[in-house]
Specification:
single chain; alpha/beta; Beta Polymerase, domain 2; Rossmann fold; 3 domains; six-stranded parallel β-sheet; four-stranded antiparallel β-sheet; 16 helices; about 60% helix; elongated; GluRdtase_N_sf; Glutamyl-tRNA reductase; NADP; NADP binding
Length: about 425
């Protein structure tokens, strides 16, 4: 069988955040998991992908090891209730389905925010881990490079990567355009505030401070992303020091008011980005000189426009993926005939050398060189048609029959043993 690729997938499509958090793998854990798989199972082409929205294991094996791999992953992460967690996983036991799934994941078609621009880099990191551990074979190398080329086409030929299609990413895109090297204060670390911070971590020029009513949550996120943390009690001092304040506080009344801004008069120019519903920044703050406010409505409108452009591009992206999958499948089918081609070349080369040895003893060096060129060219022309026929048979799904014919015709198995 030319494609023995398989995978298990835990993602936002089937599992809530609380479950995904328990099974997420950092780089060290992903590499450890891959080494465990190598020790326990006879598998190749191992790829461990882990993001905030998914944890997936890909591998090549003649046997379906999906259930065993899920159990091993759960045990490695300290999950005792293995049976109940298994229901959160998607399993891909057919090679074509596993390949198609990885294409869709790597291009962002299955991301929580369709067209997610971070996913190609995350796949590249996973591929690098696999290569570092010598667990990427020819199949995986070819598959990933085909995916990367398809991603390049998606970026160049469609609007699928254009604009910020999530509110948090649109907010970060906005604030990055406000000023160079800003001091940013993020207040409130719910889901959207946390997403903003993760997107901000890609910007090395910003100086970010986190404030949350529950300080332990801010400290955990700050330690993960390398951001400074301050006490909620010191909020006014932090506002005075910041250039941009991103607020996602959940409360019924605005927290940032005109009165607060007047009280902090003498401060430098401030931008507020209010991502809260209901709003946490009073519109009246803009009455204070030097204060400018952006609301979630304007940011969401921008994100919705970008998302619609991406959704409109999905058919074109699917077309690019289909073309890439066909190309990859043609190549992977040819892997079946590659050993036969090499054996045939070896058998003919052996005959050529033996016959030259018999009849060229009295030739001069220049004559021998000419004979070498002539016989090599003849051998290549003799090989050309069988090789083309083998590759064509692959596309028709008839390669095995032609392989048997060539093995019998040229006695390739015996030739392999004798040489």
């Amino acid at each position: 069988m030319y494609n023995q690729f398989k995978s298990v997938s835990l993602s936002h499509r089937n599992a809530p955040l609380a479950i995904r958090e328990q099974l997420a793998l950092n780089e060290a854990e992903a590499k450890s998991m891959m080494l465990r798989l190598k020790d326990f199972f006879d598998i190749a082409d191992v790829l461990a992908v882990s993001t905030c929205n998914r944890t997936e294991i890909y591998y090549s094996s003649a046997n379906d090891l999906n259930e065993d791999i899920i159990k091993l992953l759960l045990i490695e992460k300290g999950v005792e209730d293995v049976e109940s967690f298994k229901a959160y996983f998607e399993q891909f036991s057919e090679g074509d389905a596993a390949v198609q799934h990885l294409f869709h994941v790597a291009t962002g078609l299955q991301s929580q925010v369709v067209g997610d621009m971070q996913i190609p880099n995350q796949i590249k990191h996973a591929y690098q881990w696999s290569a570092d551990l010598n667990m990427a074979g020819p199949f995986l190398h070819r598959l990933l490079h085909t995916i990367f080329f398809a991603n390049k086409r998606v970026a160049q030929e469609t609007f699928f990567r254009d604009g910020a299609a999530s509110v948090s990413y649109a907010a970060v895109e906005l604030l990055e355009g406000l000023m160079p090297n800003p001091k940013i204060l993020v207040v409130g670390l719910g889901e959207i505030g946390t997403d903003v911070c993760r997107n901000l971590s890609q910007n090395t020029n910003a100086e970010v401070t986190l404030v949350n009513r529950t300080r332990s949550k801010a400290e955990a996120l700050g330690a993960e992303l390398g951001f400074r943390v301050a006490d909620f009690a010191d909020i006014e001092t932090e506002i005075s020091n910041a250039d941009i304040i991103v607020s996602s506080i959940q409360r019924e009344e605005p927290f940032f008011t005109k009165e607060m801004m007047v009280r902090l008069r003498g401060m430098s120019f401030k931008y507020f980005i209010d991502l809260s519903v209901p709003r946490s920044v009073s519109p009246e703050v803009e009455e204070v000189p030097g204060v400018m406010l952006y609301t979630i409505d304007s940011i969401r409108s921008k994100a919705d426009e970008a998302l619609q452009r991406r959704l409109d591009s999905v058919p074109h992206v699917e077309e690019i993926i289909s073309e890439a999958v066909v190309e990859f499948n043609d190549w992977s089918r040819e892997m079946i005939v590659s050993p036969t081609i090499q054996k045939l070349k070896g058998a003919l080369e052996q005959i050529r050398k033996e016959e030259l040895g018999r009849f060229t003893k009295n030739l001069t060096e220049s004559e021998l060189e000419k004979v070498e060129r002539i016989t090599t060219s003849m051998m290549q022309k003799i090989l050309k048609l069988p090789v083309l026929q083998l590759k064509a048979a692959c596309k028709r799904g008839e390669a095995e029959t032609l392989i048997d014919v060539l093995n019998d015709l040229f006695n390739l198995e015996k030739e392999k043993e004798s040489h």
